Amino acid sequence: MRLYAPVKMPMCAVLAFWAKTSGRVDVSEPASISSGIAKRYATAIFDLAKEGKSVPALSADIDALETALNDSADLADLTTSPVYSREEQAAAIAAVAKKMKISPIVTNSLALMAQNRRLFALPQLFAALRDMIAEENGELTADVIAAKALTKTQSDKLAKTLKATFGKDVKINATVDESIIGGLIVKVGSKMIDTSVASKLSNLQNAMKEVG
């Protein structure tokens, strides 16, 4: 019984993909290793999308999948918990991809990741692909953490401010973390700007300890 429909790709592309992503890694691997795994997958996926001139579709897929992963605790658990078998992961991720009408290249890639039990690296995969797409488009990606969802006006204003700082168009990748209380945490490449209230309170507490 098939758990997902195979997606046709040129054999050279499939072999290249497997060459870049073969091997086994436990789901408990540290983040640094997850990033390495994600980078290899991202390179293969991006190369296929570029060959097929479907980079815009890839960008839309990433946005949709990342939103789904952030909004669904069940989906996040499915991708990280060792309790689920690779068959269960493959069936579930295939159903998600089909419902969301994800492009064939990404659907097939998710299936391969499920087979290798590497869905835990999806957040790092999305980040790596965003960087590749941004570079292809002559843009920068800003990962922004806010205490509550940014409005379009706020997002546009932030992008304009960052463009003036870095000299390139900036795509905002925003997530919500209520624990920062207020303000923003903005990361562009290796640079990070932390204006969160939580960070300021922590700095104040540290300063008070030094005084005491």
List keywords for this structure.
212 residues, alpha+beta, 4 strands, 60% helix
What report would you give on this structure?
- By secondary structure, this protein is an alpha+beta fold.
- It contains nine helices and four strands, in the order αααααααβαβββα.
- It has a four-stranded mixed sheet, with helices on both faces.
- A hairpin with a 2-residue loop joins strand 3 and strand 4.
- The chain is globular and about 55 Å long.
- The N terminus is likely disordered.
Topology:
Layout: H1 11-21, H2 31-51, H3 55-71, H4 73-80, H5 86-99, H6 104-115, H7 122-136, E1 139-146, H8 152-166, E2 169-176, E3 184-188, E4 191-194, H9 197-211
Provide a quick synopsis of the model.
The chain is an alpha+beta fold. It has helices at residues 11-21, 31-51, 55-71, 73-80, 86-99, 104-115, 122-136, 152-166, 197-211, and strands spanning 139-146, 169-176, 184-188, 191-194. Strands 2-1-3-4 form a 4-stranded mixed sheet, with helices on both faces.
